[in-house]
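Predict the assembly for these two chains.
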Amino acid sequence: MGKILMGPKTLIYPMPVLLVGANVDDKPNFMAAAWCGIANSEPPMISVAIQPHRYTHRGIRENLTFSLNVPSVDLMRETDYCGIISGSKANKVEACQFSVFYGKLNNAPLIEQCPVNLECKVVHILDLGSHSLIIGRVEETHVSESCLTDGKPDVDKIKPLIYTTEPARQYHALGEVMGKAFSIGRELTARK
Amino acid sequence: MGKILMGPKTLIYPMPVLLVGANVDDKPNFMAAAWCGIANSEPPMISVAIQPHRYTHRGIRENLTFSLNVPSVDLMRETDYCGIISGSKANKVEACQFSVFYGKLNNAPLIEQCPVNLECKVVHILDLGSHSLIIGRVEETHVSESCLTDGKPDVDKIKPLIYTTEPARQYHALGEVMGKAFSIGRELTARK
């Protein structure tokens, strides 16, 4: 089994698809983002990498708040649109027919149609070169009632999107369950 | 459509599953991680959140290098095992029968069986509370020749794992392709 060197720019792994929200000049705007990751658990924090020239970036710097909204497969077109078009050129909320609401933070816009919405307060902004890595403390999570089963969020109802880049940039549905985490590996403990 | 408040600790979105590698006392060790995200494109950087008491964390601090390895679905048991057991208690390389190799950095161990391997140099370590957010510059990417199609990495051959937490912590396969990114959203531009 041979290995091929691909150079450092081949960042191949499955990524979540999210819509980052911020008020810009007091108006809600959203951009698509896949470069996100959980950064901390106590307190809960999340990171998102955004280019400084982006319209949404301006809103995040202005308010030091933002939101992360998890779109379902049904919102794939709207999500992709929010990744193509700049908020400086179009009213994306109108074009996507998003119903916007606000939660605890008052100025981090949330999308009603997205099954999961996180409200975040900026705690760090790291300028790393092409992107700012924005680290936000999660202040509240909203989940659509229709996506709960027995009171718990249910990924089969949330139907999130996954983004991959190779061999082409595309959106995937989440696939079948393969095994229980923190459990199926115990088979190896027995084997040892 | 109502929303339910879940509190800030409900970090619900699909996450990639990776194996983070580091040499600890000159011996290769790997831990499973899902709290990763791309942090920058020029130069390419990636972040991973790791608790400071973890054995792998010690190795990363010692060498200021680490690797990210993308396991395929076939390595689910081994991957989960690497998330359950500490390297201070077991030789995980042996238990998982990993073939370890080194690339450009000499001391960031890579797993032959994983279709994709990233070699990273630490550029920042942010202590955020429970976790350190480790930001690494990607120095090289290795891809298994068997996972290429026409010389390009092919996600259908890589078969990565996805991790979700709700309603239960579980591993998924990647699902079907739903649409082309930076393309399918143009339908809304036309609609406007």
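The two ends of chain A are 26 Å apart (CA to CA). Chain A has a mean pLDDT of 95.
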